Amino acid sequence: MVKFLQSSFRRGLGVLAVFVWIHRVPEVQAASETEVLVAAAADLVFVFPELKESFESGNPGIKVRGTFGASGTLANQIRSGAPFDVFLSADMELPRKVADSGQADAATLRPYAHGRLALWTASTNHAAPTSLDDLMRPGITHIAIAQPATAPYGRAAREALRKAGLWEALTPRLVFGENVAQTAQFVESGAAEFGIVSASSLRHPDRIRRGHHLVLPLDSHPPIVQGGILTRRAEGRSGPKRFLEFLGSDKAREILGRGGLEPPPIETRAQGKPDSENAPGRR
């Protein structure tokens, strides 16, 4: 049933178009001082345009282009030579692995946001959730989460279900999206009654007004500390460096906050801090 459901979505309901769009990779081209190519985690898809606009207004002549997808997929593409200047992951570990491969500068790694998980149903036929235990209600047969193998939000969702003691009971009902954006599409289309998605993926006006959602407590899952890093392609260029630094500015922190992402504490914006040092509980 799960394989059939996932296959049917790739054939219809516009999900395939979204999937292709968020995974497209720019054509290989020479590095430019006037263009910054960003590989960004799928949870940034709604907040990125405002970040881009704010940065470009303060840096005339520099244009930013974003490509969105599962962090693990983007990391693999960069390790294979995809022409990105900045990697904005939904965790800190994947940028470190890219640096270990020689395709990024470990010294530039910095946390730029803390992610939040949200339990969401797009239907008003279901009562507003009060906890993950509500997923055990009768009539809930499909629950969407991102693929834990490639998406940090999927790993966090899995750990939240495990901590709640629900993983084994709910595994037969799970539908896996390639990334958190596609996971939200499953819920939005109604093929999954509920989904565990990023709070930022609900910031689109059409979604925030639909159904019911619950932002999960911070202690319900491991911290989702999102990290950015400059790739080898960005070496010696000011544009990518300025964009990554911009993410730590007050303006960017304000934008991220409105977009459902908690900016990291100012004192932890130093480069390459371990995840445990950036946990929300240490703020």
What's the rounded overall pLDDT mean? 86
Give the amount of beta strand, in percent. Answer: 15-25%
- End-to-end Cα distance: 43 Å
Our count of helices gives 11
The strand line-up of the biggest sheet is 2-1-3-10-4
CATH class of the largest domain: Alpha Beta
Rounded to an integer in angstroms, the radius of gyration calculated over CA atoms is: 18 Å
Query: What general form does the structure show?
Result: globular
Q: How would a crystallographer describe the biggest sheet?
A: 5 strands, mixed
Please indicate the count of domains. Answer: 2
> Per CATH, what is the topology of the largest domain?
D-Maltodextrin-Binding Protein, domain 2
Which structural class best describes the helix and strand composition?
alpha/beta
CATH architecture of the largest domain: 3-Layer(aba) Sandwich
Helical content class:
25-40%
What's the total number of strands? 10
Task: Write up what this structure looks like.
This protein has 283 residues and is of the alpha/beta class. It has two domains: 2-14 and 115-220, Periplasmic binding protein-like II (D-Maltodextrin-Binding Protein, domain 2, 3-Layer(aba) Sandwich), CATH 3.40.190.10; 22-114 and 224-282, D-Maltodextrin-Binding Protein, domain 2, CATH 3.40.190. It is 34% helix and 18% strand. The protein is built from eleven helices and ten strands. The protein has helices spanning 2-11, 15-23, 48-58, 71-79, 93-100, 152-163, 167-170, 180-189, 205-208, 238-246, 250-258, and strands at 35-41, 63-69, 86-88, 110-115, 117-121, 143-146, 174-177, 194-198, 212-215, 224-230. The protein has a five-stranded mixed sheet, with helices on both faces. The chain has a five-stranded mixed sheet with strand order 7-6-8-5-9. β1, α3 and β2 (63-69) form a beta-alpha-beta unit. α4 packs parallel to α5 (93-100). The chain is globular and about 60 Å long. Residues 1-28 and 268-283 have low confidence and may be disordered.
